[in-house]
Amino acid sequence: MNHRENRAVREWVRRLPEDEPGLAWRASLNERLAKEARGRNRRAARTAGASAALAVAASLALWFVVQRTGTDSRLEAELVAWHQSAVAATDLSGPGLSPIEWRPSPAGADPWRSVEEELEAL
Amino acid sequence: MTRWVAFLMLAAICALVRAQADPADPLLRRVLEAAGKARYAGERTVEYRRGLDRLVQTELVFKDGPRYRIEYLPGSPLAGQVVIENGRRRWVVRPGEEAIDEGPARGDDALARLRLQLADRRGFTTTVEDGEPIAGLPTRRVEVADKRGIVVQRLWVHPPTGIVLRREIFGPAGGKLGSFEFRRIDLQPRFSADDFEPPGRPEARRGPIARLRELARAEGFLPAHLPPGTGFVLDSVEVRPLLGRRVLMQVYRGGGRILTLYQLPPMVRPGPLQLARRAGLNSYSWQREGRSFVLVSGLPEERLRELAGRLVVR
Predict the structure, then answer these.
(1) Minimal Cα–Cα distance from B170 to chain A, Å?
(2) Does A2 contact B at CB distance below 8 Å?
(3) Coil, strand or helix: which one is B159?
(4) Which ranges of A3-97 does DSSP label H, i.e. alpha helix?
(5) Over the stretch A13-57, which tens digit does the pLDDT of each residue have?
(6) Cβ-based contacts of B53 with chain A (< 8 Å)
(7) Which residue spans of chain B are classified as CATH 3.30.200.100?
(8) Dihedral angle at the C-alpha atoms of B186, B69, A88, B74, nearest 10 degrees?
């Protein structure tokens, strides 16, 4: 475009009528946006609240079951037996390897032999 | 003058306490003394029982006073592994593993509980009689029983040296938990200069807390442990399966006592375990950061509660 055409376009744009949104329209838009944001926050809060409630309920349920029924007696028996074995192992092994430290060598097999394996070996 | 009387009284009390703690039988005194002084090289079999299963290991034991070297023979599942102890520190070298496990020396801890039992003359009785020869050496058999008459351990002692040639340990109901016996023993051994030297480079050595952290990271446990200053040192750590769950087990030693700390999912009611009390033990369990922790030991429950409060996670 040459210089004269540029000036014509500028003049034409200047003569266009002003089209500003009205104050009432702006206010209603702001109100709608605020309402939308409040709803989004409430949904997020509801989801977080539900997750927290679920976690608390699960913990309470586990706590209630443990309190009500007590510790599983098989579990208690194993924990006590393991301690007794550890004491005996310390007395027997001295500075040597106690069973708690056993890790088979690369070429070694499982150190524990079951009764069935003992019988098979015979 | 008053100061001198007080000093003499204190010295007399100390001597009395020491005399009470020392066993009356000279053979038993020799056993306790030999722990830090004896010298020998021998081959022994060690048997452990776990429920119906059992394990028998053959070890070569080289002992020079407080120093030890223990080797596991070919054919054993632990073949090639070596334990070295120099009186202050202990190292475990395993073929195929980059790290060398390092920890405090165990010393005569194997006899520490015997010492406690012998000192408790109301709780335990001791009988000494002739025993059968073991590894070609004469023995005297020592039997320690609780006040109900249930045998807690038997020892076969070589009288001139005080060396324990055979030992059997029993559970609270009299069931055998394990034993060891020397097959061969040389009482005039020759050792080479580097038999008891620390193995490998210092940077290749890894302490038990480092191993605990590695296991905790790999298995999803908290790196929780009893810190130094509690009177207990971490001796060993492992993860075991139990009722479909994984349990982190830590064994601590201190003052001749063994303390076991368990970490597991929150499935233990806080407070003492009922079965521990029935077995003549004390326990204390609590929950922290969504985990159950349990301490089991012969220590008083108040002490366990105090130790629980000193647990650190780092």
Answers:
(1) 8
(2) no
(3) coil
(4) 3-14, 23-69, 73-93
(5) 777 766 666 778 888 888 888 888 887 788 878 877 877 777 667
(6) 112-115
(7) 207-313
(8) -90
**Beta partners for B184?**
B43
Domain with CATH 2.50.20.10 in chain B: 24-186
Chain A residues with CB under 8 Å of B46 CB are: 92-93, 96
Do B238 and A90 lie within an 8 Å CB cutoff?
Answer: no
User: What ipTM was reported for this prediction?
Assistant: 0.84
Superfamily classification of domain B24-186: Lipoprotein localisation LolA/LolB/LppX (2.50.20.10)
Closest-CA distance, A48 to chain B, in angstroms, reads 20
Class level of CATH domain B207-313: alpha beta
pLDDT at B75 over 50: yes
Distance CA(B289)–CA(B270), nearest Å, equals 14
Per-residue pLDDT tens over the stretch B129-182 = 999 999 999 999 999 999 999 999 999 999 999 999 999 999 877 889 999 999
Confidence grade of residue B1 (pLDDT, cut at 50, 70, 90) = low
Q: What is the DSSP letter of A22?
A: P
* A76 vs B68, B107, B273: nearest CB: B273
Which of A 70-89 lie inside 8 A of B, CB atoms?
70-89
